[in-house]
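Predict the assembly for these three chains.
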Amino acid sequence: MDKSEKLALNVSGLLLVVFLVAIVYASVAKEVDVPTCITDMEPFATDTLFQTGPDSYELQMVARMWAFQPGNITLPAGSTVDLYLTSQDIIHGFKITGKNLNLMAVPGAINYMSVTFEEPGVYDFACHEFCGAAHHTMAGKFTIVEEEAFEGETFGEGSL
Amino acid sequence: MSTLDFRFTKSEKNLNSTLIIIPMVLLFIGIYGGFMQTLFRAGIVQSDPFMGGEYYKGLTIHGVLNAIVFTTFFAVALGNAVIPWSLKMNLNSKVAWLSGILMLVGSVITALVMVAGEATVLYTFYPPLKAHPLFYIGLVLVVVGSWVAFFNWIPMYLRWRKENAGEKTPIAVVGMFTTFIVWFIATLSVAVEILVFLLPWSLGLVDEVNVMLARTLFWFFGHPLVYFWLLPAYVMYYAFLPKIAGGRLYSDMAARLVFMLFIVFSVPVGTHHQYMDPAIGSQWKFLHGVFTFAVAFPSLITAFTIAASLEYAGRKRGGTGLFGWIKKLPFFEKDSWFFSYLIAGLVIFIFGGISGIVNASYQMNTVVHNTAWIPGHFHLTVAGPVLLAFLGGSMYLIHQFMGKPVKMKGWTLSVPYIYTIGVFIFSWGMMRGGLIGMPRRTNTGASYANPESMLYQPDWMPFIDISVIGGSIMFLAIVIYIVAFFATVSARSEATLEAVTFPVTAPLHDEPANWLRNFKPYIYIAIVLIVLSYTPVILDVLESTTGGSLPYSPNSPVPLR
Amino acid sequence: MEKEDKDLEGFSPKGAVAFFLIMITVYVVMWFSLYFELIGRG
């Protein structure tokens, strides 16, 4: 190994270490993390949404061929949602556009991630794992309204 | 290095030609499917004359034929070529043909089942979507065939080591063995997935399958698979490119180190495809992320070593200044047409590399997972450097083994450059679309890209259209290649048939590197890392999943039994 | 093209080092642009 090779080796190692440090920082300081193993939750087959605190909700969502239940959720701005996701048939994928929430829905397992909606607006989600013939129609949305205009959380069927 | 005393037998030549030509036909079917998918996604077509209106059937064919069938055949053919040539030993012809026939039969079965619409499960075949049992059997035959090829080389290598004690194993042989050591370890997992779980379940012998477990076994195989694609390209970069460019490999030791690191770190990384999965602890996902960074390291070293080797070649050709040597490289020399396939792939891989590091970066995967970014990324890797190196390699092997002159040299030489323009446009569209939420594996033309649909997403349209432009250019390049390839295959044999040869030259810096001369310690380290990284993952999956899944068809939300 | 067996005297890959450092810089810029996208999404 000559000098230039050693330089390339060191720079490569340094690059990867810098990336790793940034990842750990985002995880620890910014609390942006990946889903982990959930063992303290009973399996569920129906969807529910209920308030757990002044600005917090728990949503149990079921993915199936070819709809999310619920597919249409209305909440006030500033809400934090503890989202539990499972599938009742095959594998589906769930990602909220513009948010750090991206989950696989796998039958026999429960996935979990928390998300906070600060800004009012419409947040779409679309199934992103191939789930059969009508996969491309499996979608839904969160509608986040101003706190003053909010008339109680709603959730329902349908993608729109 | 004299090779005059070694000749391939007629049987070896015929076998290797077959292993190149038949998969080339399958590759083209798959690539046609890929081109149609860009049109489907944009809503330009709803049906095509050959494959019909089933987008996901076409996508399955595209993935399986291009990423699994074509790549495996080429890797075996390259091994069948460079290992005997480098060791100056003929193959056991019977075993080699057995391997080839197993792979051919398996590929044809798999292809027919897919075309019949009995296996629309994509190339990842995640349960509980169920394919026809013959789909799994066909894949098993392809894999077993590739193992037989590998087992055929092992005694040759051991004999050579005995007869040439103290000599360094030729780098091409090291590279091919690395490829197949990684492949063998990885395919053990998918063999368990198929033979223990999916096949009995598909046949109806058992009712249910644990989906998370099958998925985890798949990705144990699925990520090392990408190194199985990449490593034969690395063999050509390290062993052939320096000579083709007119120089020497800068450092022999760096090449050997790179291959050994691939053996160590290729496998304990699969969970980075499952960052967004349930039932796996995030600490284990992080561990797999760290190992993935470790396996990025040999590729970074490769970037430097190859650049240094090319600089040496460029300076020998009279290049001066910091970057003047680049201009002297044989980009457009017809007799060095192979150069364009390797250099264009390397340029593409600069961007394939960083987008891959992004994917592997733990929670950053949230932004890109299962979005169109992912196919954008892997068309810069497997459909970039890997495809181009394999196409160039296929042309070279045919030229050598059939003794045919390369036809349409100007066009042949241009293919990689046209393709590079296309793939950059395509991937840019896909990746940008992915960042604003466009999903992968989705027939957007029927919903999100259809102005009449309630789901219409106008923001995605520019990026979908860009991917059509890029995809069309890529397809054009491949059509040119296929014409040139078959023109070469059907050309008249060269008058003076010379012995098969490969562009290999001695390295510039040839250090002893005694610690890099034996695979064994690296295989042992790899096994330890695999056990450490996968035991907790499998335990998590088993402990936190409930029940199994009945099989489903893609066409109905009601289970098949 | 010169004869193959004649090696260059005192070759040092300055251009390759420069290329490599540029590539790493590009990598840092691309990676962190995605990283800040992630942090910004919340």
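The interface with chain C takes residues 246, 248, 250, 303-304, 307-308, 310-312, 314-317, 321-323, 325-326, 350, 353-355, 357-358, 361, 363-364, 366-368, 435, 505, 508 of chain B (CB under 8 Å). The mean pLDDT of chain B is 96.
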